[in-house]
Amino acid sequence: MINHDALMQYNILIKTSLGFEKIVATRIQELDPEAKVLPEPMNFKGLVLVKNGRFSRDELVEQIARNVVEAEKIIPIDKATIADPNVICEEIRDVVTEKIDEKKSFAVKTTRRGKHGFTSIDVNVIVGDCIRKYTGASVNLRYPDIIVYVEIKRSSSLIQIG
User: Fold this and answer.
1) Contacts for 162 with CB less than 8 Å, ≥ 6 apart
2) Integer Cα distance of 26 and 83 in angstroms
3) So where does this one cross the membrane (predicted)?
4) Among 75, 38, 31, 70, which residue's Cα sits nearest to residue 54?
5) Are 99 and 143 found together in one domain?
6) Are residues 52 and 120 both part of a single domain?
């Protein structure tokens, strides 16, 4: 089983239908033989983790989007840290101040897998408040300019600002 430190090296998370994880992993390996690909990380079905090889992360994301039809959602990871809302707040400061300015609106959407002492809504509120303080941006839950995705898998969190 993969541990938290090993998980931190991956920079793309793919969501797929259950049972398609190995197919997605194989197709990505065909696109980029140097990529590191892990289907069903921590035994979570429907997920594939990727660390780009030959291509840049963003180029590989584009290649996957064009060529791997089984990849239902492709999430480029901007930050990886431990699964604690307060730590996430501290760790994302640099990334959010680069990507979100005071003229933009945002929303935080969290998905959790595993057992935690907090809910997805707790993460949305705590992380959203930190982003608001760091950037001066406003929260807009209906039509945000930017969505901050927080994917929590057991003790790890993977964050995309996009």
Assistant:
1) 76, 78, 99, 146, 147, 149
2) 29
3) none
4) 31
5) yes
6) no
